[in-house]
Amino acid sequence: MDKHKKEFGQRLLQQFIDLYVAPEISRRQRAGELDKSFTLRAAQIIFFPDGKSPQVRINSEIRAIGKVKLKPGISKKVGEDIFEHEVEGLDQVNLTEEDDPDCGHATLVRIGNSWIISFDFRYNKAFSAKHIETARQFWASAESSLKQKNWAPFIDSLFSAAELAVKSVLLSFPDPKFRKKATHKLIQMRYNRFADLGNVQPRYRETFNKLSGLRDCARYLKGPIPISKEEARNLLSTVKEMIDDASRRVEINP
Predict the structure, then answer these.
(1) Same domain, 186 and 224
(2) How many other CB atoms are there within 10 angstroms of residue 175's CB atom?
(3) Closest by alpha carbon to 192, among 182, 183, 204, 174?
(4) What pairs with residue 90 in β-bridges?
(5) In 3-state terms, the chain is what percent helix, strand and coil (to 5)?
(6) pLDDT per residue over 52-110, tens digit each?
(7) What is d(CA 93, CA 83) in angstroms, rounded to the nearest whole number?
(8) Predicted TM-score (pTM) of this structure
(9) Buried-most residue among 73, 137, 168, 191 (CB within 10 A)?
């Protein structure tokens, strides 16, 4: 392993232990729930999207689905037990269906003399998935309106599709207030800031901002809709890309 990666991993492990695991172990030992000779073999920190204090699980309490890397010469059939001495590493760790799919997590597992860390700090994955599913429905409505040259419903539906895709991406960050009530203005402001950091293609932001500006004309009849059929097709295509990009960020098949 690269020296810098190893050092980073060690610092990260120590931070998780110092901030979350060690205080929980001390609390349980003071309460008589853990013996003083306790040995830590695994830990898991669950981060809730509503701002609730993280939950710390220790050893046999952890719940996860892992993709393990077996040692050379070891092979297993589906359903066979896998033992620690047969494992070389963990490639992926996800929460089980018993946990809220909107939670983030950090899972620490000791295999032999080494610790393996897996974490996913993306929040609201299930909630984001609902936004993406609905975004696809609005996109389909926009496509139908374009074929009929119904420009107002086209713009309104396409803006809704784009905004839902944008919001699904922003929901990945922990902010209970944003989850509960995100206005059009707040979503646009945060997405522009997100794009400023280079997190999305510039044309995604340009398309979203353009649709936001056109929406007043389309929905509230504040003026003509200055758009050609060719530009409309380009907008439709870009929003489709935005939806697919959002689905990949939350691991949803496009």
Answers:
(1) yes
(2) 15
(3) 204
(4) 68
(5) 55, 15, 30
(6) 899 999 999 988 887 777 788 788 777 777 776 777 767 678 888 888 888 999 999 88
(7) 17
(8) 0.77
(9) 168
Q: Which residue spans within the chain are E strands per DSSP?
A: 42-47, 55-58, 65-70, 87-94, 104-111, 114-120
- In sequence order, the 6+-apart residues with CB closer than 8 A to the CB of 90 are 66, 67, 68, 69, 109, 111, 116, 118
Residue 241 maps to which CATH number? 1.20.120.330
d(CA 29, CA 35): 6
Among residues 120, 140, 163, the one where a domain terminates is 120
pLDDT digits (tens, 9 = 90+) for 106-146: 999 888 788 888 888 888 988 999 999 999 999 999 999 99
Which tens digit of pLDDT belongs to each residue from 14-48?
999 999 999 999 999 999 999 888 899 999 999 99
State both tokens at 135: 């975004």
Sign of CA dihedral 96, 98, 103, 107: negative
Residues 156 and 64 in one domain: no
- Residue position matching structure tokens 């700090």: 121
